[in-house]
């Protein structure tokens, strides 16, 4: 930092205390020996200073040799011919340099404390934090675009394994939703809404200046919760996180950065005495809340009622009638709480060590971490070992090299999650949590002899008897193993004072393998069935190599004008290769591999090689230290698009004005800084299709075992990039001696030529094609306020608070006239999404439920005067019908839906928008209290106004078949006149289980995300321990403590899954749990 | 002044820098070329004979992809089908069996078939260009392959026209999103004319036969083209033209009917001497769907069973007095053991049999094929169907004696007593019987509904299909209900799929289905 600010150093020099120098000529040694000798003293001149570094350097400050002073502070070093200077340094003391030109051979040096200057440095550093934009960093003060920085200090006590969970609610405009509460699960991240319907909406991740494998992760994996680019990076290694939000900030990244960029800087060594830090966390995880299910007894009654539409002649389901004299009575007369059976208390431990330090030339950081986590669902776990080594070597004043190395090994156990195998050929996968809700509560956990799990495939009462979730978890194998290796070398060379060259070569290599096996006996499968000894294996790697070259040039640098021009050339190659093998019917459950006896159901693989080239020029101009202008032009090309490569150009411009430096505000002492700024930028992207402009063919093993080829893709001759134009206006302000500061941004990003898959007439041989159509606009505001409410002192309370809020509005501005809305619908659980002009992306449609018909007569149609409408015969009253005029006739106990068009038929035409998955506002509120040695931090996180399709609740309330249902269905309609909102028990009653407002809920919530109390032992107490501790702290954290919500599901933080226009469907994921952590941190 | 100069200087430098960038970019094009592309692009394809051959294999492979659609459209509405108990028999299949089909039924989607047609169109457009690029590629071989492509395209359109009547004709491959196509439906006669055009080209070019046994029956030969064409002629009610084509086929096949006790070799191992064209299944490549469609006792996922009540009716009519020994589920065979289990399966509606001919190891044995032998070929045409087509054509021409002779030829080869002269009757009586004979011989092989429709569309024969379909319905529907649903001949054809009508601006739903 000091190194980078020559100007500041100059000021420092002016005010620095003069170096005290005693200079004694040793006559005896003169001219005869090539040895340099001397003594180094501490400031008071009474104590010699052992351990001080003495170095000989050449003209360019390149180190030639060096030694350390002995216990008496003495040294002796051989004088080398090209040595020009001798340098004395010690941690915390001012470095002193002497010229060797005058042939001095003996030195007595008094080292002076650097204390006063350190104060200065801190102040300066506080004033000039840099915004890390990956390729380039710019002084925050001079920044004209929207960049949010995350305060890592607040985060370090959280019991989270991954960065994405950690930064939730920590910056305005950052929307993070966890995929599930299972260990190792990723989260989805959106910055400023959805701007592409078909493309990717995930941000780009940049670590230490290099792009890492992110949403371009191609390794074929059966992970159902996706790959998180930073999921396997230990939060403990992270120094800072900056989030680039607007197009001017992300312009450097071109199309890759179209959805924002998250820039991570890892910890690096600091000059100073080596410091060894050890920290450890132990976390207890409570079983999350669940939906109460019917007991076995309740379910038996329900089953009999639903079996034949409420008519019971006693002839069916004899097993469920409580006859204990039957030989199978043991099987049907239990009350098993299956959710309880498959859950447990979770436990999670983490250990980290780091060693950091450095001297004049070399500084290093070495971090090591181990995490082990057991999830609250049995058969889920996560295990990670990681290490990172960052080294900086200043070879000379002109040349600096850094070398970073990181390795991560993870193992994820996923038996408790959705399995990658279909159990009914209808695309429904085995899912232990789903089965735990579905399986009959009247079944026992264990078989009659108590030795095995209960599994009964012959039971005629319910097919669920075959799928004992505990047996599936216990008998299966489902592991994901991954290794990730990241390395980077940076070379920085100062060609001239105003010209600097930086080159970085980095590699990110990730290799992953999944192993899945379900033995036949877990589901009582028979040979020949697909579930019989079924397995799946995947294996693959991805290798990404990047090379960034930057030339920065400061052609003008005067008091009033400063111009910095940076040019960056960025090359990326990205290779991946993976295979996946699904098989079944292996000879024995012991042969878990895809051996010769198994039937290979599917073998697939991917191989990819992609290259990308990007270059940009950025000019940054500062006038009078108060007017800032940044202009960027980026050009990029990509091998994906084939030979007719298209180079895209993305321009961006930003301007800022520091008002507080103007004369008219100079008198207002309470204003530290007010900087309005405006930025404009264009980004864009093409769909992720190989050889976009070519007809392409694919091959396979086909007819008679011969290779076959077929046209797989046509040429896109009409397509152009979707282009997002973003305007961002904001203001950064800081008042009352920096006690109140904040950021406010208004943005509007309009994406034109939106790329969307249009469904084609299938006669053309392809189901869909991309077209450019219409536009979508995301606009919103983001506000972050940091306040030091109580200033505090060594004896008084300090209270610092950070509040952030964001609002994003999404609107489809235009769609072409000839576009058929229905062609763009997605549907899930019967709900459909539509794209309509003026509407949002993320709205969904269904019936409006109005309760349940109390009596048969309530379903009779009446005209507006209330008189009964009759059928054509004039005698039979006309009833509401479902689907068509010959469809099901509604009666007492059926759902009431609003008949919007009043035709007496509930059908497609009565579906209206019943929800919008976009939140109105979201953000967080973080507080830190310091009192003496205590630190208390309290963090809230919230999201308001988003609707969720509660698929989990639907699956336990729809009464579709023999599956167990939630306790709430015991309130069902049972006889004429019952007033309730749960319809009658009736199987396959499609009209009652259709998508309606019944399962759409407002998922607003405010969550007390964490409360953490830290005690820092004072240094005296620590030193009294005589264990060599420098500092020590212990803390206690409660995480996910309480959620204020009206949501009826398990947790209102519903994973973002599925398509872009159909997200927010609650689908039996494990809910995030309440966690309690104790931790310890000590440094030596 | 000095500052201005300084700035001028800077701008010159910037200009130079930009120039440098431009030069750099010209070098970047080669950086962006990837040595191993992820897929073959047009420029690199259609270069040699092997690529043309692998594209031809693509055409045959596409038949496998379309098979489910073809089978459903052509067969499962025939009165022989009963719903399976397995998980694969969905309500969409039930709509077919109930003769109550809605446009939203995904099984009416023709997307697989047109996708295959696109592959063929791409072949027909691009393959000839290869000849100039590969000196080892002979014109003759290309011609044979082109003939096969035209033949398979004709076969696809023939299925489409029989299932939907009016369908779009797509002759060109979709190779660029700037191409425009007429995707409106063409009237039936135009589609048939296009089919005959293709068949004409095919007959001129295809090979007489192939040496390798798989290719002999698994690739389209001249006789296969004739068989399709004879079928087309019958659909067009051009009886003499049909007989003319069949007589050429007779020359090769008249002596090759398998002996009565060897009948099972038609299905296992397949490729019997009386085969004309059957889709081959081997250990490699796509797996045969037949086992999973029909196997009940083994896998339990079956879609289809055989309607036991209708089999009883057929056998009572065809072999009086009704004899237990003829009561089988699939063919006019000797014994009941051509089913795995003589006991009917209960599927909740009535008795149903398992269709054994695609499942067993041999006749008269209760043994399923082992997992690695489940490669039953899908037979498109075999000689006994030609005989039955001839019988139909003779009868329409009034030559009932000729018709009975054809039927008797088959009965002899099944060890079943021949018909007495005149026993088969005439008119509706004859055709009702003919359809039964067809069902016993060709049942579950993919075309019996088309045959029923073909007969019933002829003036005066409308009741043939209705009566057969409505009697002893396999899902327990009353005679009146089914009769009412089939009264309008439009109901014999399928609706266009809902999505297709939505996505294809030029296609309008058929009037009959508009309110469904």
Topology overview:
The complex is a heterodimer of chains A (1084) and B (516).
Chain A: H1 6-15, E1 21-22, E2 35-41, E3 53-57, E4 63-68, E5 74-78, E6 85-89, E7 96-99, E8 106-110, H2 115-127, E9 130-132, E10 137-139, E11 147-150, H3 163-166, E12 174-178, E13 187-191, E14 204-207, E15 210-211, E16 238-244, H4 247-250, E17 261-266, E18 272-285, H5 296-307, H6 329-332, H7 338-342, E19 346-358, E20 362-374, E21 380-394, E22 399-414, H8 432-438, H9 469-475, E23 477-496, E24 499-518, E25 534-557, E26 561-584, E27 599-623, E28 627-638, E29 648-657, H10 663-666, E30 671-685, E31 696-701, E32 707-713, E33 722-735, E34 740-759, E35 768-790, E36 798-814, E37 827-828, E38 831-833, E39 843-846, E40 849-852, E41 881-882, E42 888-889, E43 895-897, E44 905-906, E45 912-916, E46 921-931, E47 934-944, E48 947-949, H11 951-955, H12 990-993, E49 1000-1002, E50 1005-1017, H13 1019-1024, E51 1031-1045, E52 1075-1083
Parallel strand pairs in A: 2-8, 14-17, 41-44
Antiparallel strand pairs in A: 1-8, 2-5, 3-4, 3-6, 6-7, 9-10, 11-16, 12-13, 14-15, 16-17, 18-19, 18-52, 19-20, 20-21, 21-22, 22-23, 23-24, 24-25, 25-26, 26-27, 27-28, 28-29, 29-30, 30-33, 31-32, 33-34, 34-35, 35-36, 36-46, 37-38, 38-39, 39-45, 40-43, 41-42, 46-47, 47-50, 48-49, 50-51, 51-52
Chain B: H1 2-31, E1 40-41, H2 49-75, E2 81-83, H3 91-97, H4 111-126, H5 139-164, H6 188-205, H7 213-218, H8 222-235, H9 239-253, E3 275-279, H10 290-294, E4 304-307, H11 308-318, E5 345-346, E6 351-353, E7 378-382, H12 383-396, H13 400-412, H14 427-442, H15 448-456, H16 462-470, H17 479-486, H18 498-503
Antiparallel strand pairs in B: 2-4, 3-7, 4-6, 5-6
Helix pairs in contact in B: 2-4, 2-5, 4-5, 5-6, 5-8, 6-8, 8-9, 8-12, 9-12, 11-14, 12-13, 12-14, 14-15, 15-16, 16-17
């Amino acid at each position: 930092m000091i190194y980078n600010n020559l100007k500041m150093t100059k000021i420092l020099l002016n005010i620095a205390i003069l170096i005290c120098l005693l200079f004694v000529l040793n006559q005896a040694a003169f001219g005869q020996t090539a040895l340099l000798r001397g003594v180094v003293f501490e400031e008071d001149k009474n104590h010699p200073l052992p351990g001080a570094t003495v170095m000989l350097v050449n003209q360019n400050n390149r180190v030639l040799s060096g030694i350390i002073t002995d216990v008496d502070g003495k040294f002796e070093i051989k004088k080398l011919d090209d040595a020009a200077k001798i340098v004395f340094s010690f941690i915390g003391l001012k470095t002193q340099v002497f010229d060797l030109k005058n042939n001095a051979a003996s030195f007595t040096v008094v080292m002076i404390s650097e204390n006063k200057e350190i104060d200065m440095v801190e102040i300066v550093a506080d004033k000039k934090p840099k915004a890390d934009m990956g390729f380039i960093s710019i002084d925050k003060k001079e920044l004209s675009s929207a960049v949010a920085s995350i305060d890592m200090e607040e985060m370090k006590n959280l019991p989270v394994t991954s960065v994405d969970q950690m930064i939730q609610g920590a910056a305005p405009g950052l929307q993070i939703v966890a995929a599930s509460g299972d260990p190792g699960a990723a989260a989805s991240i959106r910055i400023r809404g959805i701007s592409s319907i078909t493309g990717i909406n995930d941000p780009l991740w940049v670590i230490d200046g290099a792009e890492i494998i992110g949403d371009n992760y191609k390794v074929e994996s059966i992970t159902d919760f996706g790959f998180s680019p930073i999921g396997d990076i230990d939060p403990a290694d992270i120094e800072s996180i900056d989030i680039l939000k607007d197009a001017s900030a992300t312009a450097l990244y071109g199309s890759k950065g179209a959805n924002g960029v998250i820039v991570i800087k890892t910890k690096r060594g600091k000059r100073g005495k080596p410091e060894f830090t050890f920290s450890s966390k132990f976390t207890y995880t409570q079983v999350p809340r669940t939906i109460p299910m019917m007991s076995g007894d309740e379910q038996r009654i329900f089953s009999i009622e639903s079996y034949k539409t409420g008519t019971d002649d006693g002839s069916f389901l004899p097993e469920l009638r409580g006859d204990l004299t039957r030989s199978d009575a043991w099987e049907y007369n239990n009350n098993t709480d299956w959710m309880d059976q498959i859950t447990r208390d979770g436990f999670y431990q983490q250990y980290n060590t780091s060693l950091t330090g450095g001297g004049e030339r070399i500084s290093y950081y070495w971090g090591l971490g181990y995490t082990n986590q057991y999830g609250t669902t049995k058969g889920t776990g996560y295990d990670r070992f990681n290490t990172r080594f960052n080294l900086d070597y200043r070879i000379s004043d002109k040349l600096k090299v850094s070398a970073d190395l990181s390795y991560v090994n993870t193992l994820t156990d996923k038996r408790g999650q959705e399995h990658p195998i279909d159990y009914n050929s209808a695309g429904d996968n085995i899912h232990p949590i789903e089965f735990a809700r579905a399986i009959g509560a009247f079944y026992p956990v264990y078989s009659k002899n108590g030795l095995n799990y209960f599994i009964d495939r012959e039971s005629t009462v319910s097919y669920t008897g075959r799928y004992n979730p505990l047996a599936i978890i216990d008998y299966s194998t489902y592991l994901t193993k991954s290794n990730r290796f990241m390395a980077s070398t940076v070379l920085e060379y100062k060609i001239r004072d105003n010209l600097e060259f930086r080159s970085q070569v980095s590699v990110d290599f990730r290799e992953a393998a999944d192993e899945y096996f379900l033995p036949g006996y877990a589901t009582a499968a028979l040979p020949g069935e697909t579930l019989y000894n079924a397995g799946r294996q995947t294996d693959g790697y991805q290798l990404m190599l990047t090379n960034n070259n930057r030339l920065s040039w400061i052609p003008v640098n005067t008091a009033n004008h400063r111009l910095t021009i940076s040019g960056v050339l960025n090359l990326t190659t990205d290779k991946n290769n993976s295979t996946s093998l699904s098989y079944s019917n292996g000879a024995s459950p012991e042969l878990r591999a895809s051996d010769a006896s198994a039937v290979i159901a599917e073998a697939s693989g991917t191989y990819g090689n992609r290259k990308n080239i990007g270059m940009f020029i950025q000019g940054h101009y500062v006038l009078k230290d108060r007017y800032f202008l940044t202009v960027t032009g980026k050009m990029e090309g990509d091998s994906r698009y084939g030979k007719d490569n298209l180079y895209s150009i993305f321009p961006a411009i930003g301007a800022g004005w520091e008002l507080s430096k103007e004369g008219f505000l100079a008198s207002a002492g309470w204003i530290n800084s007010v900087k309005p700024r405006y930025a404009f930028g264009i980004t864009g992207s093409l769909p992720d299709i190989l050889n976009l402009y070519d007809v392409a063919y694919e091959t396979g093993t086909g007819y008679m075992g011969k290779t076959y080829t077929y046209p797989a893709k046509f040429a896109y001759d009409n397509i152009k990039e979707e282009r997002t134009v973003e305007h961002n206006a904001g203001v950064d302000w800081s008042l009352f001696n920096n006690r109140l500061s904040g950021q406010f941004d208004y943005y509007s990003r309009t994406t034109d030529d939106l790329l969307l898959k249009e469904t084609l007439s299938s006669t053309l041989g392809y189901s869909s094609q991309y077209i450019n159509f219409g536009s979508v606009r995301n606009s919103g505001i983001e506000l972050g306020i940091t306040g030091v409410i109580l200033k505090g002192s060594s004896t008084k309370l300090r209270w610092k608070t950070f509040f952030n809020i964001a609002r994003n509005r999404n609107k489809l501005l235009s769609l072409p006239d000839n576009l058929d809305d229905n062609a763009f619908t997605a549907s899930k659980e019967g709900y459909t999404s539509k794209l309509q002009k003026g509407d949002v992306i993320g709205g969904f449609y269904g019936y409006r439920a109005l309760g349940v018909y109390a009596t048969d007569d309530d379903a009779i149609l009446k005209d507006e005067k209330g008189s009964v409408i009759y059928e054509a015969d004039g005698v039979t009253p006309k009833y509401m019908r479902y689907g068509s005029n010959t469809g099901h006739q509604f009666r007492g106990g059926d759902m009431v839906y609003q008949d919007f068009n009043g035709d007496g038929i509930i059908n497609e035409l009565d579906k209206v928008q019943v929800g919008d998955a976009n939140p109105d506002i979201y953000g967080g509120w973080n507080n830190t209290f310091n009192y003496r040695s205590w630190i208390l931090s309290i963090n809230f996180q919230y999201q308001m106004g988003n609707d969720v399709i509660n698929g989990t609740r639907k699956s336990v309330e729809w009464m579709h078949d023999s599956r167990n249902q939630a306790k709430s269905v015991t309130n069902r309609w049972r006889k004429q006149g019952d007033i309730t909102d749960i319809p009658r028990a009736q199987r396959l009653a499609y009209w009652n289980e259709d998508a309606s407002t019944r399962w759409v809920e407002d998922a607003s919530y405010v969550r007390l995300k964490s409360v953490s109390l830290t005690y820092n032992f004072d240094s005296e107490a620590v030193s009294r321990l005589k264990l060599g501790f420098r500092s020590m702290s212990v803390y206690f954290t409660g995480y996910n403590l309480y959620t204020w919500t009206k949501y009826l599901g398990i947790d209102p933080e519903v994973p973002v899954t599925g398509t872009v226009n159909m997200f927010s469907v609650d689908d039996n994921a494990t809910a995030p749990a309440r966690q309690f952590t104790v931790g310890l941190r000590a440094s030596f | 002044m000095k500052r201005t100069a300084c700035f001028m200087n800077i701008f010159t430098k910037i200009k130079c820098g930009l120039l440098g960038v431009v030069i750099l970019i010209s070098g970047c094009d080669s950086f962006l070329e990837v040595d191993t592309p992820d897929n073959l692009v047009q420029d690199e394809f259609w270069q040699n004979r092997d690529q043309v051959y692998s594209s031809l294999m693509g055409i045959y492979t596409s038949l496998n992809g379309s098979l489910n659609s073809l089978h459903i459209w052509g067969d499962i509405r025939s009165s022989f089908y009963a719903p399976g108990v397995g998980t694969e028999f969905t309500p969409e299949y039930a709509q077919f069996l109930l003769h109550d089909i809605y446009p939203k039924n995904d099984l009416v989607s023709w997307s697989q078939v047109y996708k295959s047609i696109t592959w063929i169109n791409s072949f027909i457009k691009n393959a000839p260009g290869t000849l100039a690029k590969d000196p080892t590629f002979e014109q003759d071989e290309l011609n044979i392959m082109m003939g096969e492509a035209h033949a398979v395209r004709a076969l696809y359109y023939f299925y489409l026209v029989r299932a939907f009547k009016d369908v779009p004709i797509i002759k060109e491959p979709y190779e660029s999103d700037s191409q425009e196509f007429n995707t409106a439906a063409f009237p039936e006669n135009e589609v048939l004319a296009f089919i005959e055009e293709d068949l004409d080209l095919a007959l001129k070019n295809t090979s007489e036969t192939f040496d390798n046994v798989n290719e002999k029956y698994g690739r389209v030969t001249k006789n296969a083209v004739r068989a399709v064409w004879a079928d087309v002629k019958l659909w067009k009610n051009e009886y003499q033209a049909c007989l003319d084509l069949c007589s050429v086929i007779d020359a090769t096949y008249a002596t090759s009917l398998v002996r009565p006790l060897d009948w099972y070799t038609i299905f296992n191992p397949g490729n019997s001497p009386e085969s004309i064209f059957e889709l081959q299944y081997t250990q490699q490549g796509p797996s045969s769907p037949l086992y999973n469609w029909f196997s009940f006792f083994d896998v339990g996922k079956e879609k289809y069973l055989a309607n036991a009540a209708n089999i009883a009716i057929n056998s009572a009519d065809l072999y009086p007095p009704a004899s237990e020994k003829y009561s089988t589920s699939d063919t006019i065979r000797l014994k009941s053991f051509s089913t795995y289990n003589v006991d009917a399966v209960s599927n909740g509606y009535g008795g149903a049999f398992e269709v054994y001919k695609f499942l067993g190891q041999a006749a008269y044995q209760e043994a399923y094929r082992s997992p690695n032998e489940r490669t039953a070929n899908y037979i498109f045409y075999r000689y006994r169907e030609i005989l039955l087509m001839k019988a139909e054509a003779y009868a329409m021409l009034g030559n009932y004696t000729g018709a009975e002779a054809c039927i008797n030829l088959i009965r002899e080869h099944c060890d079943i007593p021949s018909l007495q002269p005149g026993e088969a009757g005439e008119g509706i009586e004859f055709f009702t019987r003919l359809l039964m004979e067809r069902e016993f011989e060709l049942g579950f092989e993919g075309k019996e509904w088309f045959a029923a429709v073909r007969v019933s569309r002829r003036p005066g024969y409308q009741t043939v299909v209705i009566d057969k379909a409505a009697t002893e319905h396999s899902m327990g529907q009353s005679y009146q209900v089914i009769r009412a649903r089939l009264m309008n001949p439009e109901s014999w054809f399928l609706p266009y799929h809902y999505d297709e009508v939505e996505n294809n601006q030029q296609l309008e739903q058929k009037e009959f289905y508009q309110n469904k």
